[in-house]
Design a protein that fits this description.
Strand order of the largest sheet: 6-21-22-20-19-16-17-18
Helix content: 25-40%
CATH class of the largest domain: Alpha Beta
Largest sheet: 8 strands, mixed
CATH superfamily of the largest domain: Vaccinia Virus protein VP39
CATH topology of the largest domain: Rossmann fold
Strand content: 25-35%
Number of helices: 11
Length: 470
Amino acid sequence: MSKRYEIIKNIKVISINNNGFGVAKNKEGKVYFIKEGVTGDLLEIKVLKKRRNYYNAKIQKINKESIFRTNPLCKHFYDCGGCKLQHIDYNYQIKFKQENIINNFKKIGKVSIDKFSKIIPAKKNFKYRNKMEYSFTNNRWLNNKEILSKKKLDKNGIGLHIEKMWDKILNIDKCLLQDEPSNKIRNSLKEFAIQNKISFYDLKHKKGHLRTMMIRTSSLKETMVLIQFYENDMLIIEKVLKFLKSNFPEINSLLYCVNKKANDSIYDQKIICFSGKPYIEEKIKRLKFKISAKSFFQTNIEQTENLYKIIETFCNLNGNEIVYDLYSGTGSIGLYLSKKCKKIIGIETTPEAVRSAIENSKVNRIENSEFIIGEIRNVLQKNFVKKKGEPDIVITDPPRNGMHPKVIDQLIKISPDKIVYVSCNSSTQARDLSLLKNHYKFINSRAIDMFPHTNHVENVVLLKRKKIND
């Protein structure tokens, strides 16, 4: 039996799991999940903790590097909880993401897919995100070098959370995920706040002025900045916002809110527009979208159009279909397809998102779409279908935890000819498909990498209703 802190001198990484950890087995068949391990590495590891079916371990020494190992570009890689696969060659990232989807379908869903189309890689591996959220702290994470220096350090910071440590913030000098002016805005505001003795948020004692910053950008070169304050001090609020307005004229939408809650979620907060518009605009193909601070919108705009092309191909519309768009968000998928079908019916739980979807319909002069607020399992009932018309195709794009079982039951009862299932979590997607396999054939699956250097991947599956002889 492996002991905690036992050193294993020579063990080979044989694969990478869904969470991006290297997987190794010893001669007795014991399994080790190794942070930053890469398939093909020959390692010396330290055993950290025993789990039910495996051991957590960390690398002590790399005896022989894998051919798939590469040097991370980001200086914050070893501390940040963001792009944790930067040490793996991008072409191999794509390969293991595809393999993990196939394994999840086999092991979790126990389903077979007629065809796995080739995954679509991202052309841009960095600077691909259009939205970043940063936290302010008066007690930033210190690395070992800083701790050992015993110098008096400025502990104010703004950055990202340490992985699995929500209360620990790593100050970020340069983030490679979002293009400028993101880094310039963040770093300039940090220096301005320090110079002007504006307090950073103290999570432990629940005090301080600056709490979070959200930066959204668009392919139309528009920028939104939302500052979340904890203290409702208008002198400080105006001082901060005037600094941003005067130093960054490229900010089209400058917003703020005051949040005294224990958590920093903005979705129940009043967002106030200090300068410019309360939204920015984005364009996908012929369509323009207004994106507010609370809007859900895909974070990789270049890959979003490719994702929607997959959905369009799987739908294979002829112009006569009624299409239900479940978990429709701001309506972008439905509106993208609206010119090629008879009617789009979107259902979404978030009122703000539905308002945006309706607004986006008006902006684009789309008259064959309708968006409804409500819990999908409650809305998608017999009377609703009778009133709105039976769907020929259902597109479902649920959150990471997948569809509610009652929604799956309703889909089986409604029995559309096709279901197009979009997911950012192939584990829960596989689970849901297993509940549909007696009623639907799985025709095609195609993944698209929306999130390079992370273990996440978007996947689309086409389901077709079984006939009597199937």
